[in-house]
Amino acid sequence: MTVSGDMSIKEILNDFNENYAKVRKLLDEDSKNDPENEPYLSKYKAKMILFLLYESLKKLQGNDSSLEEIKLHAMLGVVLLNIGIIEMDTEELTSSEKTLTEALELLTPNASKPEIIITLLGVYNNLGILWSNRDEPEKAKTYLLQAKELYETFKCTLQMPLPIEHIVSTTGENVMGDIMMLEKAHTLTLYYLAQVYGSLKENLKSAVYCHVTLRRQLQYKDYEPIDWALNSATLSQFFAEQNGFLQSRHHLAAASTILEEYEEKLGQGEGNNDEAHLAKLETFKHRSADVARCWAKYCILLMTASKDRLMSDSSDDDALAEATTDMSDLTLEDNENICGGDVTQLIFPDVNVTKYESIIGDKFLLTYQDAREVFLNCQIWLNKAKEYYKLDTLASDYIELIQDSSQSYSLLAFFEDDDERRAKMHKRRIDMLEDLLKEINPVYYLQYCRQLWFELGEVYSDILNIKLEKLNKTKEKPTPQALKKINMLCEKSIENYDAFLNSVKDKDGKMPTKLKNDLIRPVISAYAFIGRNSMKRIAVDKATQLINVQKSYDSYQAVVDICTGDEEAALKMQEEFQLCREMANILPIKIKRLQQEIVD
């Protein structure tokens, strides 16, 4: 862009339009095809054009140009904003900060002008992104809240914002405002605030901002269905973890409704085998499976929360029945007025979610029948997810689905009063976990194999305890078959715990001197379980009994050795350490007595 003193306004605007169109093509289209060895090629070209535009427009400032000052500032602001974004994209954060700050100083005096508002919101938003990228969320929040306040102030003026294309129009047509650009800019502000509050660990506020962002996207029909559904389903997990099952179910139902509408549109292209359509179909199947997994997690979290409440000290049945599942017991410091401080009203009025909300409840479960309905729902969603996630193609996801299925059986068993039926539910878990272990290679999936071995150790222990409890209740002499079953359950539990522990040991079969933090609890728990279950084995003679007691002592002593040599482990597992130390002190006396009895 070259400017001479006698250039007409029309020539200035035409020159700007022509060059800005080149910039947009470079950024929006050409940059997608940049070579791998020059990933920023198009952005650097665009930046060069923008710099020339900037220099030309700066020369007009202070001159007796017939171009209105507000229009000149609007054009300069857009140029600076684009340069700042490019500098951020190309990791020149110091330059980007300087450029965006210059834009801020230029535009702020006319903040409430229709020609300035959209660009200024973009500047604030990008300063928020810049400081987030520098891991300074507090500073990012300051800029984003200024953007939010600016939007709200401008809305009160009842003016229509003017996008740059209209400001620099040379056709002479009436300039029309574009309210959607303003709303989109504000939606982005709210989205960035959600991320910032997440970084600041203000998780509830972050979740509320996420919801408001999703609600606005629906309101202004400014969303991509797959992404929207996945974001809503993901947000539902947070609400469920806060016992906000009303909000969680609503967000899942909205996600499934939006996916269903999208599927209908995809179906209209049935028979279309072009690559783009097939890619959309594949993405839809993938993300539908992910939403199904979120539904299954909802079921598991509802069953878990209900179990925890029933196991708590509260014996007040009315209190159990009336407990809230809508987060109304949570307080939100809503000094930014994002939801009026009422987190129970986080709904999407533009979506009819009745179909999916009617499938499953959102209240805490009190009876086996309540739990069974949720359990059956969980199985339906898990099976839907397994239609996409297969062991031979997406093993990690498939393994996690089987683990979720096992957990749902475990939770249902808690609500079951009949011992035999409970044992059968645990046996179902054993079958699915052992079948899975046969199919996966510990070399590639060691972490999962460890989890499966540990869980199998627990499940066999659960059935063992059910059988022992039954034996203790009856006055009749146990049958040899019953005793054999007890010993088999002990052996299988110990065998799986041993497999887990052996996977942690080094090549010489020794436990590391210091355990990784995530292994402390499972390793010590596994040794403690082996110690207890070894003593539960029923021995027919003293020699076998001695072997069992010795195995028990070795396991308890292993815990003592770990905790003695590792202060962190001792602190983390204080209670287990104390119990194991007591048993390790007592059992040598029993071992000596048995040894003496065998000799005699």
How would you describe this structure in keywords?
72% helix; 600 residues; elongated; Serine Threonine Protein Phosphatase 5, Tetratricopeptide repeat; mainly alpha; 0% strand
Poorly predicted ranges: 1-6
Largest sheet report: none
Number of helices: 23
The top-level CATH class of the domain at 1-169 and 177-201 is: Mainly Alpha
Strand residue content: under 5%
Radius of gyration: 33 Å
Helix proportion range: over 70%
Describe the structure.
The protein is mainly α. Among the domains are: 1-169 and 177-201, Alpha Horseshoe (Serine Threonine Protein Phosphatase 5, Tetratricopeptide repeat); 505-600, no CATH class. The protein has 23 helices and no strands.
Give the structure's gist in a few sentences.
With 600 residues, the chain is mainly alpha-helical.
Helix and strand arrangement:
Blueprint (H helix, E strand, L loop, with lengths): L8 H20 L12 H20 L8 H21 L3 H15 L9 H17 L3 H21 L6 H4 L11 H21 L3 H17 L5 H17 L3 H23 L7 H37 L5 H6 L31 H4 L10 H19 L8 H21 L3 H21 L6 H28 L6 H25 L12 H20 L5 H24 L1 H6 L1 H26 L1
